[in-house]
Amino acid sequence: MAASAGPEIERLIGLLAKLPGMGPRSARRAALALLKRREQLLEPLAASLAETAAKVRSCSVCGAPDTRDPCSICADTGRDGGLICVVEEAGALWAMERSGAFRGKYHVLGGLLSALDGVGPEALRISELIGRAREGAVKEVVLALPATVDGQTTAHYLADRLSGTEVQITSLARGVPVGGELDWLDDGTIVQAMRQRRPA
Amino acid sequence: MAASAGPEIERLIGLLAKLPGMGPRSARRAALALLKRREQLLEPLAASLAETAAKVRSCSVCGAPDTRDPCSICADTGRDGGLICVVEEAGALWAMERSGAFRGKYHVLGGLLSALDGVGPEALRISELIGRAREGAVKEVVLALPATVDGQTTAHYLADRLSGTEVQITSLARGVPVGGELDWLDDGTIVQAMRQRRPA
């Protein structure tokens, strides 16, 4: 780090380097781009971050970040309140919304159970999910968790905790992704796709 | 883009995607990381950007970004004012400072001449450089510009413009980079390294 860049710029570079996908080098390039494009990028980004920090909160029902509480999805009476899709993070919720495949409500766990990282059930929004499932209006909980060890551990734990309620518990299908060539798929996916094969 | 993320978050994602090395996907991941780490990342980054926007200006002498004007390097009487190192951007200046190889002053052009991108001499801080070179105190101008077509075009143009002054014009040596294996070097570098070979 160059002492000559000044403490303000060094601090900015240090913070930018903490963003996922950024390192010390790309953070310097980003800081440089910000300094070059003051009106188009630096000032709008500063304002946007300040606005986000001031206005965006986690929805008290589902945990998704929004300026409203309950969030716009929880408040949307046009969506099926009998269906809850459980996701790890808001990123998965946004991906699901982009797909347009789901018209129910969501529940954002805020992470996954992980023995290695010491994440237990109390660190996630699991009791809130059980509470919602017990309310009576909920008919089905779709577990849309990643197909990783932690994701599947979490899914099993949730299915176990929810087994005492009346709701049906489902999870996303496993199989060959659209555009996926068998040559490039891992064995686990092929095994799952074969096991869950269906009439063409 | 998910409409459900809300206009504030969408705006933030759009701005983050404009940073170099970021795309729509990584910008979403970055926004998510910011929302998850509110106290450690979102609020400090908002404050740091606001501070940078408010305090950091281009030095009126050399063009480097700094909170002081003249910048800390231009104001440093311990550095050789007879030596000016010309760089494209502040990033190159920071790299030069990290190397510790130069103890003179700098001149930041703010870009390179480019016929393709329509960047002419008036768009760069070239007249300021000529002005500094004419002042009399300057003995040598080191052209530390990239070894690209635009970089070398700019270097030739500057050498031409400076030829009327008393200053000596030099440029960085070309050759095999430290740790560079010949196998992995491009032909142009090997040709230059061979041409500029020196007694071992």
Explain the layout of strands and helices:
The structure is a homodimer of 200-residue chains.
Chain A (H helix, E strand, L loop, with lengths): L5 H11 L7 H13 L1 H18 L1 E2 L6 E2 L13 E8 L2 H10 L4 E5 L17 H9 L5 E4 L5 H14 L5 E4 L15 H9 L5
Parallel strand pairs in A: 3-4, 3-5, 5-6
Antiparallel strand pairs in A: 1-2
Helix pairs in contact in A: 1-2
Summarize the structure.
By secondary structure, chain A is an alpha/beta fold. The first copy, chain A, has seven helices and six strands, in the order αααβββαβαβαβα. The first copy, chain A, folds into two domains: about 5-55, Helicase, Ruva Protein, domain 3 (Orthogonal Bundle), CATH 1.10.8; about 65-170, Dna Topoisomerase Vi A Subunit, Chain: A, domain 2 (3-Layer(aba) Sandwich), CATH 3.40.1360.10.
Low-confidence stretches of chain A: none
Strand order of the largest sheet of chain A: 4-3-5-6
* Multimeric status of the protein: homodimer
Q: What's the architecture of the largest domain in chain A, going by CATH?
A: 3-Layer(aba) Sandwich
- CATH class label of the largest domain in chain A: Alpha Beta
The residue-averaged pLDDT of chain A reads: 90
Main structural class of chain A: alpha/beta
- Spatial extent as radius of gyration of chain A: 21 Å
Classify the helix fraction of chain A into a percent range.
40-55%
What amount of the residues of chain A lies in strands? 5-15%
Count the strands of chain A? 6
Specify the overall morphology of chain A.
globular
The greatest interface here is: A-B, 60 and 59 residues
- Total domains of chain A, how many? 2
Count the helices of chain A. How many?
7
Give the ordered list of helices and strands of chain A.
HHHEEEHEHEHEH
Q: Separation of termini of chain A?
A: 60 Å
How can the largest sheet of chain A be summarized? Answer: 4 strands, parallel
The CATH topology of the largest domain in chain A is Dna Topoisomerase Vi A Subunit, Chain: A, domain 2
InterPro entries (chains A, B): DNA_Rcmb_RecR (IPR000093), Rcmb_RecR (IPR023627), Rcmb_RecR_Znf (IPR015967), TOPRIM_dom (IPR006171), TOPRIM_RecR (IPR034137)
Organism (chains A, B): Brevundimonas abyssalis TAR-001
Zinc finger (C4-type) (chains A, B): 59-74
Pfam family, one (chains A, B): RecR_C
